[in-house]
């Protein structure tokens, strides 16, 4: 649980870095749990703006207010974070479709199409209708005293105001774009927290159908990420494996080997029906290179093939002395002595429980030879190779 909280903090840190790297970029968060810490994002923005004066100046210039306070600037930057609360897998799909439509500019295309139709209607309304040019019958000349206006050809021409057509029509100013007409950026960072929360219940109910749904979803997400060069993060819990009790494992013997004492072994009995074959995969082995880490990432049979980089975030004792204290109970559990802090390790506790650090380990990567590499992050953002 603590490792997943650390992973969430690291993901929010990457999100704030994305917002600070480009003043016009947007971020989208698909939240399935309802545990999103918006205040944490706000605090990280304030901290990074205080630490980097160059980023602070760039962000102030982007909003057009040099005298804006840091906390007010961070509040404005939060407006560039789109939080999409979903409750099931269909909600995740709809949220992704909404992000895709924004990236592909479908909404903007509809707006430009409507504007073109308005221009066509306006041109038609300015067209001068033709006058009736039939000369009245001579018998009606005495009764009709209307004055004929066809002697002067110029009388049929109504002066038209010049119509200026721009090759690059300016977009209308909306409250989102501001009075300065600054173009609104597009989503460049997507955070999904987390897919297992909505997918695991479906896998338990109908494994085959849920796997097909998740496969289609991940293919769509992969295409969207690569087409628009997005930074997409999928938070995925890594719980401890479930231990099977001896009572449950003793019933797995083949029925064909079980015989009743009341049956005659010389009499042939029909073979029992074969056991139903399930398509569920064999439980995966712990992927970490550290023997004390037995956690297995959820959805390990689905996710890895679609990931460009797969990392595992865990908490481990910092040194040998800390490990002796943490594992003193002999159970190999790292729960004892785990502190909460801000997620990048923690100081040694007064009760002598030992100091824990956050370890990020590369489980798999599509390109390169970094599998097995790991790094340690300490309190205050310190990093060691």
Automatic annotation (TrEMBL):
Going by the UniProt record, its keywords in alphabetical order are: Signal
Renumbered to this chain, the Basic and acidic residues biased-composition regions fall at 167-182
| Signal peptide segment | 1-27
Residue span of region Disordered: 156-182, 237-288
**Protein name stated in the entry:** DNA recombination and repair protein Rad51-like C-terminal domain-containing protein
Keyword Signal appears in the UniProt entry: yes
The record's section on Gene3D superfamilies has:
P-loop containing nucleotide triphosphate hydrolases
């Amino acid at each position: 649980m603590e490792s997943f909280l650390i992973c969430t903090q690291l993901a929010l840190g990457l999100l704030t870095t994305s917002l600070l790297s480009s003043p016009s970029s947007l971020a989208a968060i698909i939240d399935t749990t309802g545990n999103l810490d918006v205040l944490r994002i706000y605090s990280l923005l304030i901290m990074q703006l205080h630490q980097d004066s160059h980023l602070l100046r760039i962000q102030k210039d982007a909003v057009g207010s040099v005298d804006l306070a840091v906390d007010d600037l961070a509040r404005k930057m939060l407006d560039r974070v789109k939080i999409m609360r979903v409750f099931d897998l269909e909600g995740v799909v709809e949220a992704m479709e909404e992000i895709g439509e924004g990236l592909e500019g479908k909404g903007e295309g509809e707006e430009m199409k409507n504007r073109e139709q308005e221009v066509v209607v306006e041109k038609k309304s300015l067209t001068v209708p033709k006058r009736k040019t039939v000369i009245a019958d001579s018998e009606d000349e005495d009764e009709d005293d209307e004055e004929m206006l066809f002697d002067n050809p110029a009388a049929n021409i109504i002066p038209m105001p010049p119509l200026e057509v721009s090759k690059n029509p300016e977009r209308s100013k909306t409250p989102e774009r501001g009075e300065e007409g600054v173009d609104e950026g597009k989503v460049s960072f997507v955070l999904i927290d987390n897919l297992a929360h909505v997918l695991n219940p479906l896998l338990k109910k109908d494994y085959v159908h849920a796997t097909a749904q998740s496969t289609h979803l991940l293919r769509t997400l992969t295409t969207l990420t690569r087409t628009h060069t997005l930074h997409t993060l999928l938070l995925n819990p890594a719980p401890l494996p479930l231990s099977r009790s001896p009572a449950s494992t003793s019933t797995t013997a083949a029925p064909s080997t079980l015989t009743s004492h009341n049956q005659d072994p010389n009499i042939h009995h029909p073979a029992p029906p074969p056991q139903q074959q399930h398509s569920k995969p064999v439980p995966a082995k712990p992927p970490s290179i550290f023997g004390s880490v037995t956690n297995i990432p959820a959805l390990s049979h689905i996710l890895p093939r679609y990931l460009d980089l797969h990392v595992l975030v865990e908490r481990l004792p910092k040194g040998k002395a800390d490990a002796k204290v943490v594992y003193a109970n002999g159970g190999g559990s790292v729960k004892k002595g785990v502190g909460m802090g801000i997620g990048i390790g923690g100081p040694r506790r007064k009760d002598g429980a030992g100091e824990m650090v956050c370890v990020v380990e590369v489980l798999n990567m599509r390109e390169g030879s970094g599998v097995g590499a790991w790094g340690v992050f300490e309190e205050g953002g310190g990093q060691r190779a």
